[in-house]
UniProtKB/TrEMBL annotation:
This is DUF8056 domain-containing protein. It comes from Halohasta litchfieldiae. It holds the Pfam family DUF8056. Residues 1-176 form the DUF8056 domain. Keywords: Membrane, Transmembrane, Transmembrane helix. The chain crosses the membrane at residues 26-51, 63-87, 99-123, 149-176.
Amino acid sequence: MADGYRGLFGAFPYAFRHGDSRIFKLYVIFGALGAIFIGGLFTLSLVVWIGQTASSPGGSLTLSRTFIAVVGLFAAGPLLAPILLVARKHRRGFSYHPRYDTIMALLGVGFLLSIYVAAIISIPECFELDGEQICRDPASGLFGPIVNILYLLPQIAAVGPPAIMMGVMALGHYLLSR
């Protein structure tokens, strides 16, 4: 293509070159790195899970392996959405809200923070490592009270913050692109 936009991988340099704000350009770098990091973590967790269950027959284990991959896509995909949406906006010449690029970048950062909050919520109280029982200590410091409240939530609540931020991102795109 003559415009320098060559599919998924070409969208990143294109969005970086045509982005309207420095905040968005920073997000292109850190959002892509965050998506690569999270994608790598889920890939490694899938490899470990396959290694631990290799001698087991298929069935529900095959489903759980697929579930890990799908959750990885749901974690990394929304980090890339602001970059891809802004690249699309500039490539097609759409006239969106003047601060669309900046707001989408900030929503992407919010999604990254929601993944961090979800990770805090999902930490088990105790787990076993090499036959040794390891339990988490109560959090201290400036954010200690907030982290301790997040520890009290059931682990299934970890789905909430990223799901809410995905909805906020979709709503933000919808409202800003009108």
